[in-house]
Design goal:
heterodimer, A: 253 residues, alpha/beta, Rossmann fold, 2 domains, six-stranded mixed sheet, B: 282 residues, mainly alpha, MetI-like fold
Chain lengths: 253, 282
């Protein structure tokens, strides 16, 4: 297996021009995610990490620099970069399975294949019993599972997660983190996730980009020493605790 | 033991903290169903009481100006059995239906376009901002001059008199589609057309029906203006005619017909909204 850069961010800067002043949100950001990797962008609120993810998703243009997927230039949004938002992104008038089917319909998959894929995703995400429910009938954790299933539907090259568990309670959040790890193992999808939660970043990712603010830039890159098959016990590993303290200090400074 | 009993006898009443909320006048508190019904019936009854007082009060000649409920009911049933009510109602309802359908259709197309595309908004905003302050009723003479005195000036008066409200309010409805939903659709590979058809439109339906429901009152207002000026049929035409004969009972009966039509169409559009968009039901 040859590791190659699935996603590459080269010298990305972003300036928001307001009426009175312009704000530099990102400056000279370089980063990459290898094929099949799970990487986190960690930073305090307002450091521009969500802006960076939007740029990668093609929802926001860069002021300078470029984003490449498999060495192809990103110029706009597309189904190759599935995205999950913090909340409010499910279509409330569609049932769970119709929400998941949305991207497949857009991609004009034939009906039989669509049904097969939706069923497969309902299985992976343990959502079968909710297939016919409307989003408003689901809890926050379930809704995010549907959002992840929907984003995975058209088999994206990269899955982009924008603080997907930020609005969940602690217990549900832990559950969803384990869930995400199992989905990652099963599907082998390349995942880039934005979070402000230090433990979440260490627990999930193989590599962490720490973003510092004003303007947002990469202040540290940290390789997480645990293998892919980690369980909750890893949170008691002394290296986990050291890393947590180290990253905590980085975020404060 | 005896001492204890004495002590409890003499114990002061339990002191309270806070203020007990009012049953009927608590701000934004829930009202029990039974109170809702009682107050509703009371409200209607008080209107009838006021009406009856005005009609039956002792001063001579007063009932010439205010008909009694009984006389009004009589006038209504007479119009019904003579068949005039049905044909007037049909004529008026048809004008409103055609004129207002044009208005709502234009409202949906232009409103969604303005709410979705900044370019369309920039192109149309100055004209709309100017035109909507021209009272549509002031256009009546012009419309009669341009379109004659048959059905078309009435229909177009209704359409023009309501279209600006519909366009601007539906534009707001379209603007309220959450950005996250649009972005989710974009990152699922959707293009502009798909997003308009499969995200913005379905999300806007309940809001569009609400806008249509609210502005329907303005359509009837324009109908009255149109029928007062030139018509041979219609509810407002009959009210105008009744004035010549000082037939206040007929006038009252027709006003009640207007109210009932409004009530029924309001309930019908609410039902349609709840059926079409069960997901948005409160």
């Amino acid at each position: 297996m040859t590791l190659h850069k699935k996603l590459e961010v080269r010298g990305v800067s972003k300036t928001f021009t307001g009426r009175k002043a312009s704000i530099a949100a990102l400056e000279g950001v370089d980063m990459h995610v290898d094929h099949g990797e799970l990487v986190c962008l960690l930073g305090a609120s307002g450091c521009g990490k969500s802006t960076l993810l939007s740029i990668i998703g093609g929802l926001e243009p860069t002021t300078e620099g470029e984003v490449r997927i498999d060495d192809e230039l990103v110029i706009g949004p597309g189904a190759d970069r599935g995205m999950v938002f913090q909340a409010y992104s499910l279509f409330p008038w569609l049932s769970v399975s119709r929400n998941i089917e949305f991207g497949l319909e857009v991609a004009r998959w034939p009906k039989a294949r669509r049904r097969e894929r939706v069923d497969e995703l309902l299985g992976i995400m343990s959502l079968r019993e909710f297939a016919g429910s409307l989003p408003r009938e689901l809890s926050g954790g379930l809704r995010q599972r549907v959002a992840i299933a929907r984003a995975l539907g058209p088999e994206p090259d990269v899955l982009l997660l924008d603080e997907p568990f930020g609005a969940l309670d602690a217990e549900t959040k832990r559950h969803m983190q384990d869930f995400l790890l199992s989905v990652w193992h099963r599907t082998g999808t390349t995942i880039l996730m934005v979070t402000h939660d230090v433990e979440e970043a260490i627990y999930l990712s193989q590599r962490i980009y720490v973003l510092a603010s004003r303007p947002g830039h990469v202040s540290a890159v940290i390789d997480v020493p645990f293998g892919a098959n980690r369980g909750p016990t890893v949170k008691r590993d002394p290296r986990f605790l050291d890393l947590r303290d180290e990253l905590g200090d980085l975020l404060v400074s | 033991m005896v001492a204890d009993a004495d002590a409890s006898d003499r114990a002061p009443a339990l002191r309270t903290r806070g203020r007990r909320p009012s049953t009927l006048l608590g701000i934004r508190t829930e009202l029990a169903v039974r109170w809702r019904i009682v107050l509703g019936v009371l409200g209607v009854a008080s209107v009838f009481a006021l009406w009856a007082y005005a009609a039956y009060r002792p001063q001579a000649g007063s009932s010439v100006l205010v008909p009694s409920p009984a006389r009004t009911w009589h006038a209504l049933s007479q119009m019904w059995s003579a068949g005039t009510l049905r044909s007037d109602l049909a004529a008026s309802a048809q004008r409103v239906a055609i004129g207002y359908s044009i208005s709502v259709a234009l409202g949906i197309v232009l409103g969604i376009a303005i709410g979705s595309f900044a370019s369309v908004e920039a192109f149309l905003e100055p004209q709309l901002g100017f035109l909507r302050y021209i009272p549509a009723t002031a256009l009546t003479p012009l419309f009669l001059l341009w379109l004659g005195i048959d059905e078309s000036p009435k229909i177009w008066l209704i359409a023009v008199g309501t279209v600006f409200y519909n366009v601007l309010m539906i534009a707001d409805v379209a603007r309220n589609v959450p950005r996250e939903m649009l972005n989710a659709a974009y990152t699922l590979g959707a293009g502009r057309r798909t997003i308009l058809r499969r995200v913005i439109l379905p999300h806007s339906w309940p809001g569009i029906i609400d806008v249509a429901r609210i502005n329907l009152a303005a359509a009837w207002l324009m109908l009255v203006v149109a029928e007062l000026l030139a018509a041979q049929k219609g509810l407002a035409y009959q009210i105008n005619l009744a004035q010549r004969f000082r037939a206040v009972d007929t006038m009252f009966a027709l006003l009640i017909v207007f109210g009932v039509i409004g009530l029924i169409s309001d309930l019908a559009l609410r039902a349609l909204r709840n059926r079409l968009a069960a997901w948005a039901r409160p």
